[in-house]
Amino acid sequence: MKTSIQSSRKSALLAAWSLILMAVMAGFAFGYLRNLTYSASEPMEAWARLQREPFWMTMEVGTWLTILGLDLLVSWAFWRIFKNPQPGRAFAVLALRVLYSLVLGLAIGQLFPLLNGAPCLSAEESVHLRAAFDRIWSYGLILFGLHLIVLGQAVHKDPRIPQLWAYLLYLAGGSYSLVHSLKRYSSLDADYLQYLESILALPMTVGELGFAVWLFWAGCRRKI
To answer: What is the CA radius of gyration of the chain?
Structure first.
């Protein structure tokens, strides 16, 4: 029993640190590096910068690959946390996150031809590769939302964890799946979808990142 408690505590801390680091790196990759390597409104200027300063593209791809590795660590950590009380649901949590990670890996693969200044590609081809990354990742985020919903179910059934986190994970997962399903399968106006995403950005962020902070607290206080 003591070994099981120590295992859950270590897994909770691993999941917490991985999720927090992943959130920081995703913000860095999507909010900063992407602006240095891509511009939908000025593709030629971005293309010239990409050829002139290929280092930033290398850093962006490396950051995404690190995020992918952290995602797999989180999958394993969640499985360890929930496998004893809920083996079936723990496997579903693991499988959905690993499947999302595989889709993310496929999306990252679209960026590889842009490395080293992409000397064999045109500006138009680089835009198509960027669009492919966004499209494939968006499909993956539908799966990610389903993962958070199943994770919420696991939390809901776990007496060690406050029920608040189950409901926040349900909300976050539903928001991810809704927004990206509409992006991929509806004909709604892009401005409306962007507005909807901005409204749901808070629950999407608070659900998993807030749970990560709780896992860190619980792991340090031996509450899990």
So the answer is: 19
